[in-house]
Amino acid sequence: MQALAAFVLASALLGAIGPALVCGAGVRETGPGHLTSIVEIIESFPLGIEPTHRASGVLITPKYVLSTKEAAGKPGITKRRHVVVGRSAGGEGVAVEIDYKASPEHPDGLILLKLQEDVNLDAVTKAANLPHGNTDNTGASALLASWGSTKDKLQSSTVNVLTKAECVKKGVKEGLLCSADKGKGACGGDEGSPIVQDLKNGVYKLVGIVTGAQDVKTCLETTAYFDVAKYSSWILDKVYG
């Protein structure tokens, strides 16, 4: 596994090609040691073909990453997907293979990617905190962050979470969270990216997960998110039950 991880990671760092990322004038690069719970999902191929960016996700325990089913995809005969952990801590990171057969899926579209090896959490690399089931984050600000074809840099932008009534008026499916900050939002390739709130000391609380494919034409207008608080019981049951 270590040899495979080294090959995948080396190829990725030489120039993985990915789609657009968190876009807009308010986007900034995130420095080393920040948002270390946010990971990249890459797809690798045989015959020396360079891996590509597929999606983002958020580390919630040493063994599990929360993302979306559409973003995570399924492995094929000629392709495999890995979670790259630790790059936002300032290092090269480690590619960890996903155990798809043991990765629970929720009917709404979320997936808990079970890793074949535990991630080593330390003073820098930390898992995100889950919100309580009754948490209401509407009307609050949060940080949207994502990986992709941005010279291996984690991109982030502060967004304002609208009320669910406001989201419905903007055409967002009932029950989802959303933001509509002009010039700041998610585009194609940002699936599975989280919005989080800073709890200080390098720890972040997970608020939402970018839903399936975002419309590039409207990425600067409205971004929809799964409300993670609604799924806290399901997540805890699958991880610890």
Secondary structure tally: strands? 13
The helix/strand class is alpha+beta
If you compute it from the alpha carbons, what radius of gyration comes out, rounded to the nearest whole angstrom?
16 Å
Number of domains: 2
Instruction: Give the name of the CATH architecture of the largest domain.
Output: Beta Barrel
Counting H and I runs of at least 4 residues, what is the number of helices?
A: 4
Alpha carbon gap, first and last residue: 28 Å
Q: How big a fraction of the residues is strand?
A: 25-35%
Q: Unreliable runs, pLDDT <50, ≥5 residues? A: 1-21
Question: pLDDT average, as an integer?
Answer: 78
Look at the structure and name the CATH superfamily of the largest domain. Answer: Trypsin-like serine proteases
Kindly state the percentage of residues in helix.
10-25%
Strand order of the largest sheet: 1-9-8-11-12-13-10
What is the CATH domain class of the largest domain?
Mainly Beta
CATH topology of the largest domain: Thrombin, subunit H
> What is the H/E string?
HEEEEHEEEEEHEEEEH
State the shape.
globular
Q: Biggest sheet, open or closed, and with what strands and sense? A: 7 strands, antiparallel
